[in-house]
Design goal:
Structural class: alpha/beta
Helix content: 40-55%
Distance between the termini: 23 Å
Order of helices and strands: EHEHEHEHEH
Shape: globular
CATH topology: Rossmann fold
Number of helices: 5
Strand order of the largest sheet: 2-1-3-4-5
CATH superfamily: Response regulator
Number of domains: 1
Number of strands: 5
CATH class: Alpha Beta
């Protein structure tokens, strides 16, 4: 099964992303809360990746004792890999979001920004999902 690989630490956002992905047929959402764990496991998931979506600022999960890293860490890992799919950067951190985009773009990854806006998580359905649908080819005619 094709996968959407996601770095995200917010349970509220994850609920919204799970709801959004339920509108995308035949795709599995694989989520990491920790950049270092994601980088460790990415090689086994990249061959089936259809889309990667990255947050930047990560808070340690309950019970975690180590720094979870950031989306910029994952972007640094991805630039050393052959581009296999599009990437959406979905962080509120304006400066670090653009740093991630620049690194990935320079390495020839197809990268886009879906910045959270306003209150709540409605932007996931209003902004992220339409972008994901387009990048995954669901909105192509023919």
């Amino acid at each position: 099964m094709k996968k959407i690989l996601m770095l995200e630490d917010s349970e509220g956002r994850l609920m919204a992303f799970r709801n959004a992905v339920s509108h995308l047929p035949n795709l599995e959402l694989v989520v990491w809360h920790d950049a270092f764990q994601m980088m460790k496991e990415l090689p086994e998931h990249l061959p089936t990746a259809s889309l990667i979506s990255l947050d930047h600022d990560l808070m340690p999960q309950k019970g975690a004792t180590a720094d979870p890293g950031s989306g910029l860490d994952v972007a640094g890992f991805l630039v050393k890999q052959k581009p296999v799919c599009s990437v959406i950067v979905h962080t509120t951190n304006f400066e670090k979001g653009w740093a991630m985009i620049n690194e990935l773009s320079y390495a020839k990854w197809d990268v886009h920004r879906a910045a959270p806006a306003g209150m709540g998580e409605s932007w996931v359905l209003d902004s992220w999902l339409p972008m994901a649908r387009r990048l995954l080819g669901f909105d192509r005619e023919g």
